[in-house]
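Exam revision sheet. Question 4 asks you to relate a sequence to its structure. Input first:
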Amino acid sequence: MANVAVYNMEGKEVGTLELNDAVFGVRINEHLVHMAVVQQLANNRQGTQKAKTRSEVSGGGRKPWRQKGTGHARQGSTRSPQWKGGGVVFAPVPRDYSFKLNKKEKRAALKSALTSRVRDSKLIVVDELKFDEIKTKKFKAVMDNLKVTKALVVLTDVDEKVILSARNIPSVKTTQVNTINVYDILKGDTLVLTKDAVAKIEEVYA
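Answer key, structure tokens:
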């Protein structure tokens, strides 16, 4: 089992924590990690793009000129794709881009992402994150103490003071254990977990 240092909000080491290999020490499956990221990005797409085909553009009912004898190429409608104001060839239509991943695949991908953060030494465990007021300056100070700039901060439950304190820092995102996902873990340069969050992740995914 991997051992990681536990820090306080001042950035001082206050102990160590043994991580469960069933969650933080699995064999990394890059294919499933890739699929999980693609799925999340695909599921986030609105899919509302739309353009009109030649059958949907208004006008163009009359043949522009007679078939032969004008010297022009033959034309049947002013709404053909080659005309200005004509329809679009193979026009995009609204569609659903989402697709499904099996539960076991999702869990395996998440464990792989967590393991990669441990192996790359980009996982920091904090004994607790508590603020007595909503203050971005205080949260920024904690990140500076931990020597972290771009991070995903995982909390056990919704803590409004912590979440609102971090909201104005563009490079920091907060989430809860029940909403963590592969894309956010990989996008944040460092994964910051509270001790309680580690325990809950191990409880849910071990």
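Marking note for examiners. DSSP finds seven helices and six strands in the chain.
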